[in-house]
Every structure is written in structure tokens, then in C-alpha cells.
What we know:
The protein is of the alpha+beta class and 448 residues long.
Amino acid sequence: xxxxxxxxxxxxxxxxxxxxxxxxxxxxxxxxxxxxxxxxxxxxxxxxxxxxxxxxxxxxxxxxxxxxxxxxxxxxxxxxxxxxxxxxxxxxxxxxxxxxxxxxxxxxxxxxxxxxxxxxxxxxxxxxxxxxxxxxxxxxxxxxxxxxxxxxxxxxxxxxxxxxxxxxxxxxxxxxxxxxxxxxxxxxxxxxxxxxxxxxxxxxxxxxxxxxxxxxxxxxxxxxxxxxxxxxxxxxxxxxxxxxxxxxxxxxxxxxxxxxxxxxxxxxxxxxxxxxxxxxxxxxxxxxxxxxxxxxxxxxxxxxxxxxxxxxxxxxxxxxxxxxxxxxxxxxxxxxxxxxxxxxxxxxxxxxxxxxxxxxxxxxxxxxxxxxxxxxxxxxxxxxxxxxxxxxxxxxxxxxxxxxxxxxxxxxxxxxxxxxxxxxxxxxxxxxxxxxxxxxxxxxxxxx
Length: 448
């Protein structure tokens, strides 16, 4: 057993808006002493909290400690767009279709297991249903090319036996209040989360059931000690028989999967709480979620008072950053793009102010695989969610907990048979090439 020191800790740019628009959360309880546990989980996002809940189900009464570098829902878990998608959603494709019918059916079944797991947590912990809204989503198309992508994806879904409905331009206007979209593809299985609300409430429920969650407790070292692992934080230590790393791209920060993980940052902006005049100009339905027909297009979402105000979220722009630290200039550039994309869709609201803009860290692999396996004896990973953090993170968290418990399931079978992430090209070609490719994909997406 070896020692793994953290080469870097998470760096966030911009506020975690989904958390900022909710009432203040409970005071954090950092780790300030040395403790012993049966299981330790590094990371308090979708993967980490799902792992903790599954461990509790499998080992009632066991000692479980979750170590979160910051505050719950202040990291990536509070910086996504809140789409918990059941269907194939391959971001590297032209139309989201996966690798084939059989693999897509398997992934759909697994994604629905993740949604069912989250739904049970919502019921058990009496989480506000506004934070877990099973309303479906729409792929919006703003061009002939986008409409063709939707037609291709719809045909694929129909072959899989999955329900889908094509919306015309008028239906899209009635839904969104925007004339930007010429068509849309509605699929009913997506759950729209208030991601920070869900994560904060899940953490509160796990604490109620006896799991210790230590926030503001970044792990600086993981060291083998006999048959145990010792995790060192700023003010304390945890000694545990088994450890799950649920820290997504920061798996590489501890020396694992080196030069095999792609660190992508996506950017988003959120309006102020819209007043009555703006809402009247906007029209449309009170809540909706639009993913672009081209995966590199612009995601839009409208939320209501129960989620933190009547607001519209715009997400687009991507950068590949091996150093895992976006700059202020990158965020400023993305915010300018967001304002233009928003104005294109809602010209009557072009002057509405964006209250928040932020960056969020995604971890992808070139071959689309996750890292959910035993890394060393008693040390497990639930990482590399490939831009699908809400569903895939939940799945890898469940899977790592089951693997650490010697339990076999459809989830463990799927992830443990995946290949290792393929290596990236050498520096600096990887960074230069990837960012040029992302900018080209953004340009090609055009109106989408």
C-alpha cells in the first residue's frame, strides 16, 4: 500500500449559483480530530453522497465518514444544469445517440436505476419535490441542421422503443416564449433537479441517519497503513478500512489515471429573479429545460419560485484545462457569449441582468468510459462521469459502494468491464488541439 499526496485542490471560478439562490445552509462541521471509520468517502457530490447512502443500506450501523473539500453543493454538484437524463446522451456524438442499440438499452436501464435511487432518497428524506421534478426535457432545434439532428435522434429512440414527441415552432414558442426554435424533441424521462437543493437535502438526510459529513475538509494525503488507509485533512485524520474516491477529475490529483482524463470546464449564467413585467413579456410555461440538438450548442432552462426564483439559465462555452483552473478572463468571455445567446432567444428581455456567472468542472475520457473500480486493495474510485454527473455520478457512487462491499450487480458489471481511459496526446498538443476543436464545435453549432 502506498501514499498518495494531493497535487492540487479544487479551484472554483464564480459563485455556485444554484446554492446561492437558496436559503442559507447548515453551518459546516469540518473534521478537527482523528477518527476511525469502516468507510471513508472523498467527495460530497452526487457520487460521494450516493456511495455513502448505498454503504449505509448495505452495512447498517457501520461508521461512514464523507470528506468534502468545500461546502456541499458549492463544487461541481451545484454548478451543473440539473438535467438527470435517462436516455443516451453522448456528448461526443452529433445527435446524442450512443454506440449501438444494445449498449444504449443497457445505459438507459442503468440511468433509470440512478433516477429510482434518487427518487427513493427524495421520499426517505422528504426532500422538496420542487428539487426533483420528473417533467422531461426538450432538445431544441434552431436550424435545419439542428432539426435533422433531432430527426436522427428521434428515429434512434423509436427503434429503441422509447417515447418521444416532435414539437413544431409554435409549440416551442408556447413552451419557452421564444421564437428562436423551429422545432423540438420532447422526451419524458428526464428529471429536472434543483441540484444544490437536492444535494444539500440529501446530505442533511444522511447526517440524520448517522453518516458523518465533514465539509471544508480537503484531503491532502491518502496513505496505506497495514490493512487500513489514513486520510489527512487540514485539521484531522480518518483511519478507515476502505476508501472511495468520489472526486471525479481530481482522481488525477492523487496520481491515478495520469494523462488519461480530460478536464473540461463549462460556463453558465443565471438571470436575476424576473419581475412581473419581464414574466409578462416572456410568456411560455413556468418551468422548462432545453438541451441543444447539437451537443455543443446552448442549454437553456427556466425555473420557478420554488427552485429559487423565476430565472433563466444559459449554459454554453467550453475550455480544456489540464491544470483544472479556469481564469477570470475565460469566465468573462463566456458571460459575454451568454448575454448574446440570451438576447438572441429573448430579445424582449435583452436588458435583463445576469446575476450570476460561473464555471463548472467536467471530467471526460476519450473513449467515454468511467473509472469505477478498485485502484489498490481497499481503495476504490467512482470517477470520470463524462459530463453526465447527476445520473452517472449517482451510478458510479452506488457501484463503488457495492464493489467495496463484495456485492455484484448490473451496475458493478457494467463499469468493471469498461476499458481503461485511453491516453491523451502529449502536451502541449492535447491542450492546443482540444481547445481549437471545442471552439470549432461551438462555431459549427451556430444558432443551436
